[in-house]
Design goal:
The complex is a heterotrimer of chains A (701), B (299) and C (303). Chain A has 701 residues and is of the alpha/beta class. Chain A contains 23 helices and 26 strands. In chain A, strands 6-7-8-3-9-10-12-11 form an eight-stranded mixed β-sheet, sandwiched between helices. In chain A, α4 packs across α5, α5 packs across α7 and α16 runs parallel beside α18. Chain A starts with 6 loop residues before the first strand and ends in a 16-residue tail after the last strand. Chain B is elongated, with a radius of gyration of 26 Å. Chain B contains 13 helices and no strands. The longest helix of chain B is centred in the middle third of the chain and has 37 residues. Chain C has twelve helices and two strands. In chain C, a hairpin with a 4-residue loop joins β1 and β2. Chain C is globular and about 70 Å long. The chains are: A alpha/beta (701), B mainly alpha (299), C mainly alpha (303). At the B-C interface, α6, α7, α11, α12 and α13 of B face α1, α6, α7, α9 and α10 of C. The site of one iron/sulfur cluster has 14 residues of chain A, from loops.
Chain lengths: 701, 299, 303
Amino acid sequence: MADERDTILSVEDLEVRYASDDRDIVAVTDVSFAIERGQCLGLVGESGCGKSTIAMAILRYLGHQGRISKGRILFQSRDMAGLTAEDLRALRGGRIAAIYQGASTALNPTMAIGAQLAEVLRTHAGLDRNRISDRVLDMLAAVGISEPSGMIGRFPHQISGGQQQRVVIAMAFLAEPELLILDEPTTALDVTVEAEIMNLLGEMRAARGTAMLFISHNLGLVRQICHTISVMYAGQIVEHGSAQSVLDRPRHPYTIGMIACVPRLDLGRADYRLVSMPGQVPRLVEPPRCCTFMDRCAHAREGTCDRPMALEDMGGGARVRCSRWREVAGAGLSAPPAASATPILPRRDRILSLEGVSKTYEMHRLFNLSRKSAAKVRANDLISLELAAGETLGIVGESGCGKSTLARIVTGLEVPTGGWVRLLGGDVTRRMVERRSLRQVRNVQMVFQNPDSTLNPSHSVGFILERAVKKLGAATGRAARRAEVERLLDLVRMPRDITRVTAAHLSGGQKQRVAVARAFAGRPSLVVADEPTSALDTSVKTAILELLLSAQKESGTALIFISHDLAVVRYIADRIAVMYLGQIVEIGRADEVFTPPYHPYCEALLAAVPAVDGALDRRRPRLTGEVGRAVANAGSCLFAPRCARAIAGTCERFEPPVIEAAAGHLIRCHLPLADLCALPPVFGRRGGAAQTVSGWQPTNL
Amino acid sequence: MTGPATDTASAAARPSAQPQPGQAARRPRFRKLRRSKVLGIGIALIAFWVAVAILAPLIAPYGPNIQHTTALANPFPSSDHWFGADPLRRDIFSRIVWGARPVLLVAPAALFCANVVGIAIGMSAGFYGGWVDELCSRVIDVLLSFPKIVLYVVLIASLGPSALNIVVAVILVSSPGIGRLVRGLTIELKTRDFVTAARMRAESGFYIMLVEILPNARGPLIVDFCMRMGYTIIAIGVLGFLGLGLPPPNPDWGGMVREATPMLTVYPYMAIFPSLAIITLVMGFNLVADGLQDLDHGR
Amino acid sequence: MTRFILRRLASALFTMVAASLIVFVLVEASPGNVARKTLGPFASDEQVQILYERLQLNDSLIVRYGRWLGIITGLRADPLQNPSLGLKFHDRRGDRYVGNFGFSTMMKIPVADVIWQRLANSAALAGLAFLVIVPLAIAIGILAGLNAGRPLDRAITTLSTVFASIPEFASAVLLMSLFAVWLGWLPGTSPLQAGGFWPIYSQFVLPVTVLTLYVTAYVARFVRASMIEVMATPYVRTLMSGVVVTEVVFAYPGLGRLLLETALFGDIALIEAATLIAVLIAVATQLAGDIGYMLLNPRIRFA
Ligand code: SF4
Ligand code: SF4
């Protein structure tokens, strides 16, 4: 431990309680940590583990119901408990700055950006006018805003989410804080933007020596920026240590489980198997009397685990809250056997085919699947895909790439403005779902993103499933339907007595399970899942993925899986289509898309994703700029403005051709295939201990 | 480490270990219900008047329309006539007790009908959109542009004062407002994924509106119902006061105030007691509306 | 922006026409009634029958509505003024002018002779109340906002609930008992006639108070329920409802009391006139409110 004067923040034996209806809820208990100057501590854990509560406790934003019931928080050796409201206000946004998930809430919508930044300086630094405007411009430049002088006159709603987050960062750093609290600062952003923001944060910390508390559920991000990590579970720190040691050699069964839950970018489904964790984070009403993880722990032993756990020193500053950590570690972290490596299905009958589908929006053209002015210069077809029975097609892309619109066209919630859609042998191009045949309707079902909106909160699980069985399934008669509902509940591994529970009372993961069961009620030919896991915690996410896979196998359903999460898509999909601004820029087998030859956009996307696995060394072609609105300069590569490999004079003037890299592996790019093949793979194994992973040669290592 | 893998699989198969939120989540609502003072007082006031209405024959010492010659010279409150006697020397206490019946019958019945009409209009407008919405919204706008009392007066004046016509008037006056509320709720709710899911199993529009959307609009609708009960009782009182209420000699609180007003200088209590009856009943509904809103906002 | 205003104007016009149709249907749906009420209770059946034919009352409702609209807008001559009917209805403005609402059977004079004076009286009452209500409501809103969640906010909420539970006639009766009967500080009626014991201005105190109490509380409650934006329109419509009752209680010679009296009497022309004017005011304030809101709110302005 460094000596006193370097310690910016120290939290000692903190316990936070929230007053609830009948008794207190213990949100955080027995938490101690310290952050030194220039250091970054990562707090990781799933929602409800108490990580954000700690941030709130530091800033004393606990509201009416919350209170610090035990322990101290020292900021630069000063007990925060002794501060007056006045002191606190001066501290917040001054020496302690905080950045949250939604940048838009941190900015005042009615004030110009320059004025907001200037205000920070006026209140916290007391500078005069000229110096203020200089500092503001400098800071905007420092956070990577290309035209600072243009930015100061704008209002928050006029700039993109990524730029807003930059401005918020600028705002935080303007006050020259000693401590910066980052609570999921990039969760709402696209991967490429996220990567940039993370880089920026790393640079700012290096340049200014600010201490940081980084709160996230994303282990990859934490690995990227943090020196030390505290893993939280049920309000306690269960494991602490250097980022490397915790993530590479996790000791606590929970940490091990968490890491095993994270899908990998560098491996396909054939090569490893995700392991989901059962159960839920318990809600504590009093400080725990046994290991809080006990009911979910595979290593739990009566006699050793059923007493309060203390953090035990493992040496080297690493601590773990598990009495059996030696035995657990001995069990090793060998990957479980790969799931039955599903071979790519031979092309069977086509159930869905899209041909040159385009969709243009008249009014606001938020996104379109083709060019905006499709009528102008449109020679070849755009979105063209085919889906065989039982196949899984993953669609990835950043927000606004049109992947959801594609889903809505397939499911008949929207009709395309051009092209053809054939479903189960029938033309459904101009048919909204209400006008499709009963067979077509029943055979296409959907799993939605938002668990809180997917089930009718007024209905019971039993009612929801029975209705789905009645309308979609073949079962006739009440008893048969009941049996079918029970089959579905088994399929998604839910207890049968859950039928009586109202949907509003389910957890997010449970809701999504029911939603999966509902979608598969009639053994449909096709299920379209639009970001079904992105609102869920890591361990729950994995469980839903497994369910989808097993349900799909059971009923031979084809799956279109839409996500922004590349690793998830790689795990679940047989084939992947990568979309950018309404176009498919690459489509092919999962392993093909993730290894060269690939489209420069795929390369950039892969490079942007933070990996948990430290053995992965990645070259990172940095992707600058942000996804624009599909600009209509017909006859160019839409990716050209951001492409690191653009061929000047060609890419921005001519429409790229579609190259067939292999049978069924298509890339839309001007670069010759040979060049694309020569692109360095984004992943490599450090130290040359290259493993050959399905399909790519680690030649460049 | 095959242990964890198999273990997790079997553990996942018995998620009964997970907290069952079903029962746990329902209990606090009742606790909150008890905790909200406003709601409690409101419910008590309504319960009081409902009890009075039901038990009127037991509570009221006299019939509502019996004229007491004994009170001719002295109509002031006395042990015989607790609230005194009215200009026609009928027992005011008894009339107030009996008068609870028509109000508590007409107002909820009328509002129930108004809700049926308003929900039908608002829901079709919000759900179908297009010309249906245009038409319904226009009708709503036009009806809402009338000041309420003016509409009531013109309606009752042309239909004639009777309980049935009051119901008709309440429907015409209240359903546009309900329709507008429901339309807004429907437009919001129909974007939810569970509605999309219903569309994807080829449910009829009728089913979606009634089974998927309506149950989720019940919160705001209940609050609205309570607030509207208050206004409707006031409106019925006002109609009675203006001479457009229930035809005499039926005991009608508003009408009682009307009959007493000319004698206010001598016998103010004749008007004050029925006024207090209306005020307390209306306040009951208003407080319940407030309390329910507080619960919704977690205040 | 001009398009926005034009669109609002068109929709206001539509509302007025539709509202007038509703009023006409409500009042004149049964044609036999119309003739009878025009002539009064003492006319013989033959007289009623003659008038029925002369006015072509057996025409369809929509045709009669068209004629009626024509008379009001001054496009048609009022047939009642035709001397051959022998009704002795005479209007010094002639039989064809804008705002010709016909004759009041109750007062035996043209509606136009009585209605505008009454409207002015009502406007005076409403205007005075408005002058009190608006600053009061703003002050209350700011106070509640600044103390959100604290006892003062709760007190304001509770008080507005309590006052919104008191019908105008009840508060009028209570205030009258207190200030006019018991204390004798203020007059109990407001006939707007000078020369009595009470000066005219004192006759406004109680009616304005009654209006203020109810309207402020009512609007405060609605604003709390966030059902409407804080705008002038709801005040005006609530105020108009309140004015009717208040005028009746205090025997105030305004449009509201006129409406009630004519409604009870069955004076067709006056009912129609008073109702239409009330709707016109409501629609006009709505229009003014919309346009004002647009001028204040740039998002609509640029849309
Ligand atoms: S203490 Fe026991 S139950 Fe807790 S994590 Fe360790 S092995 Fe599992
Ligand atoms: S066509 Fe050019 S700009 Fe587009 S992806 Fe290929 S190299 Fe980049």
